[in-house]
Amino acid sequence: MPSLAHNLLDADAEGARPALRMDDTVLTYDEFRDAALRVSASLKSMGVEPGDRVGMVLPNVPSFPVVFYGALLAGGAVVPMNPLLKAREVEYYLRDSGARVVVALDSTAQPVVEAAGAVGIDAVPVGPALPEALMSDRPRAVAEDRDGEDLAVILYTSGTTGQPKGAELTHAGLNSNARTMQETLLEATPEDVIMGCLPLFHVFGLTCSLNAGVLARSCLTLLPRFHGAKALSLVERDRVTVFEGVPTMFAAMLHEPDRGDVDMSSLRLCVSGGSAMPVEVMRSFEETFGCIVLEGYGLSETSPVASFNHPHAERKPGSIGTPVRGVEMRLVDDDGKDVAPGDVGEIAIHGENLMRGYWQRPEDTAAAIPDGWFRTGDLARTDEDGYYFIVDRKKEMIIRGGYNVYPREIEEVLYEHPAVAEVACVGVPHPDLGEEVAAAVALKPGRRPTSTKSASS
After folding, report:
1. I want to staple 73 with a disulfide (CB 3.0 to 4.6 A). Which of 143, 153, 313, 366 is the partner?
2. Within a 13 Å sphere around the CA of 353, how many CA atoms are in the beta-carbon half?
């Protein structure tokens, strides 16, 4: 399988079509490809060899896709980072990955420059529209050959304990997952406009918005910082056909006071992932904007898509659907054995989308993938049709008086209250029960909480 970057080189037939947009900045596929090849040439002149790591600290601006594909064309492996990271955090990622160079947005580059200096590598600040400081006068004529199992991206995952671990994502894994997303789930074409508000430095946005969009030759319209009102206006202005977001984004758009004044008729599909979509939020969004929301599931370690409510199959609200093409899923107990039908178990995943392992952490890799099946830490159950329903994170389950309480189930009930906008349940210490359930609730605009006393108080 060719390098992930070859998908951009193969876009000749759609070269004049818009590929990237951010407000008044528009790059066609020809311009996108030329800029990426110039970045590739510049990185090669700086000594980047196949397999070398290239750090990226960029928000959702056109320079992100250009640098990303330019680094891959040079044979590098990209290490994307959140632009909100502090210098010490960037320094950790650079040291741990052994990055050779790092690229940052010029307006917020100071922490990155500081971190790069501490590590002893070059930092290259670039502008948002085009990374001109990293673009050679002449583009490279060819891309570096990379094997499907070669490293394409190191994506750091934030665990609940310890330092973040770098998931090693390969060209084959990212390519196959993007193709599955494009062909079987989005069914995207060059006529589509995909909303790029998911952070591209996270694998959801990287695979499902950018890489799937390049495969489809669609236009990706970018939103550097999410805001509900701005997202609604972009859908109307750019005639967005595919909106992808996490549940909080759907909730923010739904609760915008002027949502009824925006023309959302161009939307043909909405995709939710990243965390469980509350059923009430999904129902209200579909009713308000007249669209369909398909929910899926995945992780950084799975490139990311593992399961989905497929577009031409029964859609079950509250479910993460069934495994996608090339992926297997099962529910296991603590000993790795399949649980009985209907019982709750930990999701284990096997397939072409699975990471190669954690960067330079063989023990963590062995613990996460003890038998070829990746242990996700997510608890779920299946129904009679094989649809998966997330119950909660394994580590977030609350044990109240000896009973297992799953926060997701309580949250779903609270979302049904007409005054509730968002809710999150956690376990707090209790002297008698061990743990008690606590709920943090955000109310809809104009609603006020009232206090009530129980009969026993």
Report:
1. 143
2. 29
Helix (H, G, I), strand (E, B) or coil at 287: helix
Q: Are 333 and 375 in contact (CB under 8 A)?
A: no
100 φ, ψ to 5°?
Answer: -90, -30
User: Whole-angstrom Cα distance, residue 161 to residue 165?
Assistant: 11
Beta-carbon contacts of residue 286 (< 8 Å; ≥ 6 apart): 292, 293
pLDDT tens readout for residues 63-114: 999 999 999 999 999 999 999 999 999 999 999 999 999 999 999 999 999 9
In whole angstroms, what is the distance from residue 302 CA to residue 300 CA? 5
| Angle (CA) 10 16 21, round 5° | 95
DSSP state at residue 82: -
CA 297 to chain centroid: 10
Task: Please give the model's pTM, rounded to 2 decimal places.
Answer: 0.87
Per-residue confidence band for 456, with pLDDT thresholds at 50, 70 and 90 = very low
Give the count of alpha carbons within 13 A of 70, CB side only.
Answer: 33
**Residue 132's closest CA among 31, 48, 49?**
31
Cα–Cα distances (Å) from 340 to 84, 231, 333, 358, 362, in that order, read 44, 44, 10, 31, 32
Task: Assess contact for 320 and 296: CB atoms under 8 A.
Answer: yes
Cis preceding linkage at 65, omega within 30: no
The set of residues, in sequence order, having a beta carbon less than 8 Å from that of 228 and lying 6+ positions away, is 249, 252, 253, 255, 256
Structure tokens that stand for 295 in this block: 């929910």
Q: What is the pLDDT of residue 159?
A: 56
Q: Which two tokens stand for residue 452?
A: 């009530």
Cα three-residue angle 352-371-318, rounded to 5 degrees: 60
For residue 422, is pLDDT > 60? yes
DSSP for residue 47: T
Between strands 388-393 and 374-382, the pairing is antiparallel
Residue 2 CB burial class (10 angstroms; 0-12, 13-18, ≥19):
middle
